[in-house]
Amino acid sequence: MKIYTYDNTFEGFLTCVFDCYSRKDFPVDICSRFGEQRYLFVESIDVPSNPKKAERVWKGIQKHLSGKNKQLLFYAYLSEELGIEMKIYRFLRRMFSGHLNLETDYGDPDVLSLTQSSQKVKKEAMRLMQFVRFQRTKDHMYFCGIEPKYDVLPLILNHYHKRFTDQKWLIYDLRRNYGVYYGKDKVEEVVLTKKQFNTYNGQVKQALLAEGEDFYQKLWRSYFKHINIEERKNLKLQRQHMPRRFWQYLPEKQHEI
Amino acid sequence: MNELVHKKLKILSDAAKYDVSCASSGSSRANSSKGIGNGFAAGICHSFTDDGRCVSLFKILMTNNCIYDCAYCINRRTNDRPRATFTPQEIVDLTIGFYRRNYIEGLFLSSGVIKNPDYTMERMVQVAKKLRNEENYNGYIHLKAIPGASSELIHEAGIWADRLSVNMEIPTEPNLKKLAPEKSYPDIVKPMGQIRDSILVAKEERGKYRKAPRFAPAGQSTQLIVGATPETDRQIILLSSGLYKKQHLKRVYFSGYLPVNSYDKRLPALNRPPLVRENRLYQSDWLMRFYHFRAEEILSEDQPFLDLDVDPKLGFALRNLQLFPVDINRADYEMILRVPGIGIQSAQKIVLARKHRRLNSMHLKKLGVVLKRARYFITCNELPPAGLGWEPQRLKHKLLGEMNSKYKKSLDTQLKLFADYKPVVPTLH
Question: Closest residue of B to A99, CA-based?
Fold first, then answer.
């Protein structure tokens, strides 16, 4: 009975997969070394992350998966579900042993569950494209603090990078405490130590907001109010499309909270 | 930006809300090197109002002044309402301001008609042109083509915009004459045909030269008001199917009639907008666009209206029980799509997954098939065909009893004493 532990990154996980193959092992579990201990009387092997080994596994995966499913395993991994590592590992074992088009075998519980997990992550990334709201600050930067369910900032930065090329922007993950910043030339990861914003709803301190920012929010609020057709009221539908957990970040919903 | 703009914004967004279209899909216009905005092919909804409709585009009228007096329209000239007009620059500033904050996906510009159609259209085109050329804006623009505007202006609109639309509003010519005597049918159909041709030409040219100019890359759409005039559902569905086929429209929107001008005796008196009917029409629309149904299959000739109790796909299955049960492990994709309870996603998954192994009902359930409904219409590995020997009427009531429809409260699921009951058709005075 062996378990493999790793440093809770995708790279580390791929290294684990590499080591399993090179030692001809089939572990009972692969889990983060920071997680709580779930096993008694097992031999635990800690695998340090190794970019070269990870790269080789990743290349192998890319060779076997078809076009639009190339990112399937990465997305599924981001869902941070309990036991997702073993699902991916079993999937890889079957795939590398020569099973063709394995990602479409939805009758298999592992494949279906990986597909569904990756769907969840994709949906959360979509939500971040929808519900990010920038506030303009005095130094002409557009700031947004938001708290996605999964760690999806890496998946959406390309979208914002393509869209807003002539303005500085920063999207900050309030829970994971890091953000992506674009300073008109490149996108980079940043960690803020001195926070000038409310860590609950990402609201920037009033003194730092650009002139006119309040007015734009007011305009947006009244547009939001007036575009609504009262006779067709359907709050359930609204909540279904725009979950409550995002309302605190949306200026149009501020007056109601 | 001042308080005056705020006031205008209130009036003009209030006036614009009856336009249904809000899609931002279909265009993948790329951003320029130092520009702002791009198209996102699948479209993005940025917010949802209390009525559950999405706010994707900044939907606004340029002006709610209008020279026309259409009975169904809130902005008709004889209505006593506050009126306002935006200058092109004000609309440009608002759009860019909202876009930079990621509030919106683009601009949807419509307008009442001031002076004459050409004058109005010219100002609308000016807004789009300013956005593209002065602001370096590459996001989505949806322009409404004003019926009666000259073909040169409509062509220019298509060059700057991503999507164009001409609103039909009233499905048949005689009724349009009654409700909007100043408008004419040819005025609506002519620009539609022109836009279709220009789109086809531009597509072909772009196939040859990569730099050829685009023309409305996201296509064109239109809108029909449902329930203001006595057209039947069959007429509406056949019309929209014709529009998809002949005019190559991307979307036909249905807008349940809201009694905005209740004093006008030409219009029916309704307490509530016909939401269920509108929903059933949209379901039929989806059947035509994604489920490979033909318009004639959704409603046969002796059936002018859609059944409000059951959705049109279930209705089709109940009328054609001889086509079922469908063998999940063998049938074509087209036939699997026709099973009530199986949507597009599950149908695609089924077709892929059955190459690896035979599927049974547990697999189907996990894939997301609504077995409660589908089991009467399928056979799979071990599932006996539950649908055999059912009378369509009895099966319908059994399914209705088990169903958890959002309209359940407003619908009567009891057996009807008068089975051939027809909905009351509003009459024109």
Answer: B356
